[in-house]
Amino acid sequence: MMHELPLLSLAIWLPIIAGIAVLLTGGDRDARVARVIALIGAVMGFVVTLPLYAGFDIHQRDFQFVEIKTWIETFGVYYHLGIDGISLLLILLNSLTTVIVVIAGWTVIQTRVAQYMAAFLVLSGLMNGVFAAQDALLFYVFFEATLIPMFIIIGVWGGPNRVYAALKFFLYTLMGSLLTLVALIYLYNAAGGSFAMRDLYQLALPFDLQVLVFMAFFVAFAVKVPMWPVHTWLPDAHVEAPTGGSVVLAAIMLKLGAYGFLRLSLPIVPDASIYLAPMMIGLSLIAVIYIGLVALVQSDMKKLIAYSSISHMGFVTMGIFLFNTQGVEGAIIQMISHGFVSGGLFLCVGVLYDQMHSRQISDYGGVAKRMPVFAALFMLFAMANSGLPGTSGFVGEFLVIMGATQVNFWFAFSAAITLIFGAAYTLWMYKRVVFGDVVNPQVDALVDVNAREFLALGLFAILVLVMGLWPQPFANLIHTSVSELLAHVSYSKLPLPAQ
What we know:
Blueprint: H1 7-23, H2 31-47, H3 50-54, E1 64-72, E2 77-83, H4 85-104, H5 113-132, H6 136-145, H7 147-157, H8 162-190, H9 197-200, H10 207-224, H11 233-240, H12 243-268, H13 270-275, H14 277-296, H15 301-320, H16 325-356, H17 367-370, H18 372-385, H19 392-405, H20 409-417, H21 419-434, H22 441-444, H23 451-469, H24 472-490
Antiparallel strand pairs: 1-2
C-alpha cells in the first residue's frame, strides 16, 4: 500500500539527495549531466507528492501520513512529520515550482550550473520539511536551514549588488528568528519537556506570557511574509536575485511566514492572537494600501512585482487574523494563487531580461509586435495580479474581503478599494512594456518564447485558470483543517482584558 511508504520523508529527502548528486557531477564541465539529474530529481520530488494528494482524506481532522522517529532522545525531540490540507497544498506548490525553476534555468545559467541546480533542490526539500514538521524544534531547524540555499542563490548568481541584498536578506530573517527559538525553549519547559506541537497546542499559558510568545513569533514570521514595516529586504532581494531565485522567493518562501502564524501562533497562543488581531489587521491594511502606492511609482519591473507581492501578502495576513472561515480559507487560497501569479510574472520578466538585459520599463514598448505568444501569457498573469474574475487572483482576495465584512465593514471597504491600485500598477506596467510602437532597436530584435519558456510559463498559466474557474477542489482540501484550527482558537481558555 502506498500509505505505508514514508511519503513525507521522500518529499523532503529525495530533492536533497538529488541536489547532492548534482553537486557530485563536478560543475560546469558536466553541465548537461547536472541539468538532467536536477530535472529528474525535481520531477521525482513532485511525483512522490502526488500520492499524498490521492490518499488524503478531506474529512479527517487529524494530521495524516504521520511519521515519528526518535531524533534527540535525551531532550524528547522527535523526527515527527504529518500534514493537513493546508500543508499539503503548500508542499504540492513547492514541489511543482521546483520543477518549473529547473526548466526555466536550463540554458540561462551558464556558470556553476551544478551548484545552482543543487541549491534549488536542497531548498525545495527543506521547505517541504517546514510544511510537514510536527515537532517545533524540527520546524525551527528546517525554517532556519532554508536561509542558506537562498542566501547562496542571491549571493552567487545575483545582480551587481547581490552581496548587499543577500546579507540584508540573511540578517533580517535570521535575527527575527532568534526570538522564536527563545520562545520555543520556554514552551518546551512549560509543556514538561516536549517540543511536540500537539503538546504545545494544549498549553494554557497566562495571558501576559501568551502576548510575549506571540510577539516572539511575530518578529520572525512578519519578517518572512514580509509585513510592513519589516519589508525592506524583499525588493532588494528580488531585484538582485536570478529569475529562479525570485520565483521561489515569491512563490514559496514568503509563505513560510504566513504558515508559521497558522501552525504556531494561532493554536499555541490563541488568546493573544485574538487580542492582537486588530494590530495585525492594521499592519496588513497598511501593506495593502501604502505598498500598493509605492508599487505605482516603480520604474524597474522586478521591483514593481516585488512591492506587489508585499501588498498581496497583506491580504493573506489580514485573512488569517479575521478568525472566520471565509477569511482564513481566502488567505490560504491567496497564498497558493500568489505562488502561481508572482511566479509567472517573475518568469515573464526573466524571459525579457535574458534577451535585453534590462528590467527598466522605459526600455521597452511594442513587445507584442515581436512576441505575441509571450504577450498573451504575460497578459494572463497581469490580469490575475489585478484580481480579474476567472483567474486565481480573484478567488482568495474575494474571500478575504467577504470575511472582512463579517468583522468590520471598513476593513472590507479599505481592502476592496485598494484592489484598484493593484490593477493600476500592473496594467500600467503591461501597457508600457507590451503595447505601443517599437522604438528601441533591441526590442525589434526580440524573439518569441521557445518551447522551454512556453512550458514553464504555460504550467503556471494553466494553474491560474484552473484555480480561477474551479476553486472548489482547493477549498475542499483545506476546509476541515481550517475548521479545526478555528475551533481550537475560539475555545478561549482565559478571559481577555478589555480592549
